[in-house]
Design a protein that fits this description.
108 residues, alpha/beta, five-stranded mixed sheet, 3 helices, 25% strand, globular
Length: 108
């Protein structure tokens, strides 16, 4: 199932935002910082929409991460949902996320 943990402190967010690699995809921004364990954080601001849309977009991003997770290197990942995420299909989001992770050299 899920072998990844969630972020535990705001300091982890700050370190990934400051020192990590960043890539803009259609619908999502990916931050990656290599490390010893897999940790994930999913963020959706009010720009995405009301609570239902924000929660749905976060669920989608977690599901996509779970699909790629076994092929990814250990490290800390932050996915920031963009406002256009609600207009994209699951398959196009999957393609964009895979492309972005490949550009950040996250795959084993």
């Amino acid at each position: 199932m899920r072998n990844f943990d969630k972020f535990s402190t705001s300091g982890e967010f700050a370190s990934v935002y400051k020192m990590g690699k960043k890539w803009h995809c259609e619908g999502v921004i990916i931050f990656y910082l290599s490390g010893y364990e897999k940790k994930i954080a999913v963020v959706a601001s009010k720009k995405v929409g009301k609570a239902v849309l924000r929660n749905r977009s976060k669920r989608i991003l977690r599901a996509l991460f779970a699909r790629f997770e076994k092929n990814l290197q250990a490290g800390k990942y932050i996915f920031v949902a963009k406002s256009e995420i609600t207009e994209l299909s699951f398959s196009s989001l999957e393609k964009n996320l895979k492309w972005g992770l490949r550009k950040l050299e996250c795959f084993k």
